[in-house]
Structure formats: C-alpha cells, structure tokens
Amino acid sequence: MRHFNVTGLCTPDKDYMVDISDKIQKIRGMVDMEEYFTINRARQYGKTTTLQALKKNLNMDYIVSRISFEGIGGTIFSDEAKFCLGFDELFGKSLRFSSASSEDMKQWNRYPKDTDSFLRLSEKITDFCMNRKIVLLIDEVDQASDNRVFLHFLGMLREKYLARKANEDFTFFSVILAGVYDIKNMKLHMIERGYHSTPQGEVKYNSPWNIAANFDIDMSFSASEIESMLSEYETDHRTGMDIPRTASLLWDYTNGYPFLVSRICQEIDETGLAWDCSGIQMAVKNILLEKNTLFDDISHHLENNTELRTFMYELLILGQEKPFERTNGTVDLAATFGFIRNDNGKSVIDNRMFEIKIANYFISRNQEDKKHLKITEFFSLLTYVR
Question: What's the pTM value of the predicted model, to 2 decimals?
Fold first, then answer.
C-alpha cells in the first residue's frame, strides 16, 4: 500500500509521487551537454528524490556514482589525506549500486590506499575516466561546503574540467552537486555560518565552482503535476474527488512547494478529511500548528539573522515593496531559503502557508510586533481559496 511520504527519499513503488519526468529530462539535457552544475533549492524541496530519479534515467548510458556527505562525520574534512581516502571509499562503494561492471569496480579498487593526496586522487580519476562516461552526483553538499579541504577538491575538479576541454586530461563526464546553497556563492554560505576571516570582517573567497552552468529548472510542482499524483491516489482509493479542482487548491496554498503539497495530502489521507475545499482548509490549519523541520528552519533563520528578520518584517508586515535583486545578500538569502520568489522584479512571499507561518512568528516574538500585526486577524484561510 502506497502512502504520502514527507521524510527522505520517495520511491514510486512505495509512495504517491508527482510525475517529474519533464524536469528529469531537462536535467538530463544538461548532463548530456557535459555540464557541471549545482541543484540548489530550499530544504525539503525534493532534491534527493530528484537525484535518485535522475540516476535511474542515466543508468543506461552512463556509470552514475551517487554519494552523500550526510551522516559521515567531520573527520573526513580534517585534512587532505583523510578526504582523498574517504572520497575513494565512498566512490568505490557507490559503484556497487551503479551500472558499473565488475571489471570497472576492480579497476577503481585496485589501489585503495594510494589516494592520500589530491595529486594521486586526480591521477586515479584520470585513469578511471579514460574510456568511461562517469557522472558524479554529490548530495547534501552543504555539509562540506565551508570546509577548505572540500574547496580544494572542487578546485581539483575545476582544473581537470578545464584540462579536458583542452584535450589534456580525462575526468568525470558531468558533476552535479545538490544542496541549499549555490556553491558558486561561497560568501553567502560562510557569512550565514558566521565565518569572518579578515580583520575587516569580510570573508575572502575565490569560488572553485565558477565553471558551473546556471541551474534554472523550476523544481516546484505545477497544478498539472500535482494532478498526476492525485490521479494515482484516486485510482487506489476512489474518493470521488474533483482532481483538477483539488490540485488547484493545493497549488494555491503552497505555490507547488514539494514538502507542503505532500504534507497536506498526507494530513487529509491519515486523518480522514474530505478531499475538498473544507478538508484542505482544515489540513492547512492543522499543519500550521505543528512542529516540523521546515517550520523550525524558518524560525531558526529569522531568529539568528537580524538583516533577514528585518527584511521579512518590512516586506510582510509593513508592506514595503522590495525589489527582487539577488546581488543583494539579504534578498539572495531569503530566496535561497525559499521564503520569497520573484514576481515581475518584486520580492513576494513564496506561498500562503509561509505567509501565515512567518506572520505568526512575528506575532509570538514580542508584544511590540502585535500592534503591527492586527491584519493577521483577517488571514482567514477562506480568503485564500479561489
């Protein structure tokens, strides 16, 4: 029996899923063009599920190595030797779950203890990629992106990429990094993490990922994509729901934010609410009152970044117009976290559930905010239904 899943990887045989095949084909096109890029989207935006679907799509034509830095501890980033040996082990393990042949795996694992430097690791990658199309997927890259040793690794990949274009090296056919932050903008992440390395309080950095192509594929769910998931559910459960109308309502509340779409569906399914306007309204109200990782992240980011908090207060509560200009660090950070989106050059709150949740954050923060927030008394969910 399939269900709606909001934790971790979704798989078609166990979970009700939106059909993202069009998105996968677009990403595949970037891989086929031998591009290196980062899939950077807000938390719980379906990045891991997308990588898994992409890997399945690519397996017939490429050897796909998918590794993650989640849960491996910080020791691997302590020095060059530990990182190179750790990457060697992670990559070798990933080949066991790829389309690599036994001969491929034997070649990679032939000298497992020799890659204790970037020079030796680079040579091993050269030898392995000489007659093979290898795609490297690295998930949860934020775990590593403020570690200098990882930046050196990206620098090595950059040099090999450029040398390949000059026909002077062999390397990975395509490399995809997945995380919240765009690795091309290391300054944004390091400032958010509190790193200030100079007496002037400025973070000095040179991005080793400036070779990366821009990733501008829309990862949110459209109403028609949501319909594909609801159709599968309706086939199994025969609720009699109006699928296009229900999909439209879900999109109205969430703007297609993957976690929110699936969480509303899960709430309706598990609590026996109706698949109609009133059921969706009740599900939204219940979810807005709960603690979950996404909402905890919203509060955490607002509480710990004064500039971001002020920006969101002025935009949402005071109604000030803010241009959507990502050269502005605060705007970029708000967009990176999924709080805002671009609406004809203006910054607007990404979705109505975030609008209510962030307003409630300011209500609960202190008494002074309350006099500005009387308007939230009119934030009736009914007014958000078209």
Answer: 0.88
